[in-house]
Write a structure and sequence with these properties.
The structure is a single chain. With about 130 residues, this protein is mainly α. The chain has one domain. Helices cover about 75% and strands about 0% of the residues. It is built from 5 helices and no strands. Helix 1 runs antiparallel to helix 2 and helix 2 runs antiparallel to helix 4. The longest helix is centred in the N-terminal third of the chain and has 28 residues. It is elongated.
Amino acid sequence: MGTILTIHRIFGEMVLPLLTIIAAIALTAMWKPDAPRNPIARFFPILIDIQATLGILWFIFLLINGDGARLLSFPLILHPIIGLIAAGIGHMAVGKGPFARLGRWAPLAGLAVVFVLILASVIIARMVV
């Protein structure tokens, strides 16, 4: 089960923030009105979903193994909540959601919000662990 934590940490602290920046820049630069959905826009939310799934699996594993009091305390409980919110916003950022009205800047704005949420979540996890 430690492998899930290792993958979650590497992906969440190194890979996902870098991919967030790259995706935001690429989607903003390649934006065209009424164009079909870009492959990056299809692939990116899946990365966030994988990260959130790994985190939830690790969280459930720790809850089952008796570390529930610490995990359910503030501020550590914010880590999985922020992860789920980031996954939802990741889907809205590149789809037909509240960010769509921003046109070219929709991916950049949405993914910037996701990036801030990811950083906040990592900081919370690092403070407590």
